[in-house]
Structure formats: C-alpha cells, structure tokens
Design a protein that fits this description.
Blueprint lengths: L6 H23 L4 H40 L4 H6 L4 H13 L4
Helix pairs in contact: 1-2
Length: 104
Amino acid sequence: MVTRSSPGHVLGGCFAMAAFAVAVVAGLARDNTPSAILLRAVIAMIVCYPVGMLVGMMCLRVLQEQVKAHQKTGADDESTLQAHGRPTAQIAEKAEDADDATVV
C-alpha cells in the first residue's frame, strides 16, 4: 500500500523541490525573464517528481529485502555470538569492567 508519506512520495517531493530551486537559480544567473524562469522551473519539477518517486520506491524495496534476509539468517541469536569466540557472559563482564575504567 502506497501512502502520501511513503519514502517514494517524500523523495519525489525532495527531487522536485531541488529541481525547482536549481532551475530558478540557473534562470536568474542567466538573466532570463521571470516567466521563462518559472515555466522552466515548473517543468523541471514535474519531470523530477516521478524520477525521485521511483528512486524512493527502489530504496524502500532494497531496504525491505535486506531486513527480510537479516531476519531469515537470524544473525542476532546467541549461538552466533558464541561461535565467534567468547561466550556472552564474558562479554558482559568485560563491559562492566569498561564502565569502571577512567578515560583521560
């Protein structure tokens, strides 16, 4: 379900506003007429909104796939910590010792 607050719409709006601002500044730098500046800025905004929306939807899709892959592997379980060396009890003891250390 796509809502107006989805990353695609938010990023599309950001792209559109950035394109509008760049077109206005570029038009002012070239000493164009105000009507030409606004027309080109609106066209840039209309063109860049769907581009930004597609980029946002692709980023959301990649992020969702990464979360699913991470959940599937179960990388945060205790057996993974123990497989890398020290058991979790020793890690907790080291963390408590680190709290007592004085930082200079």
